[in-house]
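Q: What would this chain look like folded?
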Amino acid sequence: MISFYNFTADKRNMSLFRKDPFGYIIFIKKWLIRLFGFLTHRRYRGFNELVIEGSEIIKDLPDTNVLFISNHQTYFADVVAMFHVFNASLKGRVDSIKNVFYIWNPKLNIYYVSAKETMKSGILPRIMGYTGAIAVERTWREKGKDITEKKAVNPNDTQNIKRALQDGWVITFPQGTTKSFKPVRKGTAHIIKDYKPIVVPIVIDGFRRSFDKKGLWLKKKGILQTFTIKEPLQIDYENESIDEIVEKIEYAIEQHISFLKVIPTDIIESDKKLNKERQFPFDY
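A: My prediction, written as structure tokens:
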């Protein structure tokens, strides 16, 4: 009896169970990104409106060693918005996430740095973590509270970020907290200096008003959300100090203390009035 080895079927099976550098099965990862993409789209284009600027920058970036730095307003909604904007931009949309089918064939080498305790806080965060989380141990915070005695950095965490940069794009929130105008952690500057990625700043707003703290549940409708992508930072990796890079990050994500200023009452009232008047169509 003669048997023939089915190379085509074997290749297909190998592809089906192919894993990313962190051991996540690509097939499952792709379907989870699709699922979360379809489920969350109306949060940014329907219930609320996401106004995007600078998305043309995305399509010109290389496929690997890109670090996105951003201010932070919720645990998950910020990252989900980035997945939407990045994938829409790569499919040719300019400053728009109209027509959610851009998520059907997503970029699968996007990773995001997140606190290990956050990713273990429930079944939904654990599932979401499969889409590209790099879970790290925070050295200055534990169980939702700041600690006085700083813990040592886990070397595995920095190696995982290095591995993610070598494979694709990494999103990080340098302040490590959703509170505004908190100091930028030096760890991000060390990563930039050591691994020399292209650093792309992003500034977001409106997410804190739209979602709960975790960013899992919609808190309020009709809120204008903004998402601004800036030109990559010019960094002298060899000669700039860690403190200089930290300051450059603070300015880039508009979290330097100089941005903390008193807003005139008339502007505050005008913004409130505009938010009340805005009504967004359920347009895909």
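The domain at 8-277 is CATH 3.40.1130 (Glycerol-3-phosphate (1)-acyltransferase).
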